[in-house]
Design brief:
183 residues; two-stranded antiparallel sheet; 2% strand; mainly alpha
Length: 183
């Protein structure tokens, strides 16, 4: 082997790199997908903390309802959406397939379903706001329905990417498992 300070090893001209071992593609993909899922989980936890803070502040009447609106009905079941992130965080370090599958299924139940219901629940209020310009709920001076629709748009994207990357990661893990069984 060559060193920075000394001469090149005898018998090589530096063109012998072709035979060196490389990390298998599915391992490289697994690392990249795990990183993306972790980032999305962190974004989800931040959004969850904001919604939990709104529900807590409203339920405990810590701030006037004129400043922070009372929560919509869909926000209560959405608080269960922390469960998929917990399972996802538990699945990633040891490539636990069952935890990742539970995370994907519960993401559909506890994340996406309440968001879809929330979009339908708030639609009449949004329609009234945009037709007549009247809002009755506010979050720090902004129309609550506008703020919550923005939250829904962002969180649906986060959860869609979480599920997509989790599926891709499962495929990589199954590829790795199948290759080990062949040997």
């Amino acid at each position: 082997m060559a060193s920075r300070a000394g001469p090149r090893a005898a018998g090589t001209d530096g063109s012998d790199f072709e035979h060196r071992e490389r990390v298998a593609r599915h391992y490289q993909m697994s690392v990249a997908l795990k990183s993306e899922i972790r980032k999305l989980n962190i974004v989800h936890v931040l959004i969850w903390v904001l919604l939990a803070a709104q529900v807590t502040v409203s339920q405990l009447s810590l701030v006037s309802h004129k400043i922070v609106a009372s929560p919509y009905q869909w926000e209560y079941p959405y608080l269960l959406s922390i469960i998929p992130s917990v399972f996802s965080f538990m699945a990633l370090p040891r490539n636990n397939i069952s935890y990742l599958v539970i995370s994907m299924i519960s993401a559909g139940l506890f994340c996406v379903a309440p968001l879809l219901y929330g979009g339908m629940e708030m639609f009449p209020v949004a329609q009234q706001l945009y037709r007549h310009g009247k809002a009755y709920r506010f979050i720090f001076g902004f129309s609550a329905v506008s703020v919550m629709y923005l939250v829904i748009v962002i969180t649906v994207q986060v959860h869609a990417w979480q599920i997509y990357y989790s599926k891709k990661l499962l495929d990589q893990w199954f590829t790795s498992t199948q290759e080990k069984k062949k040997k």
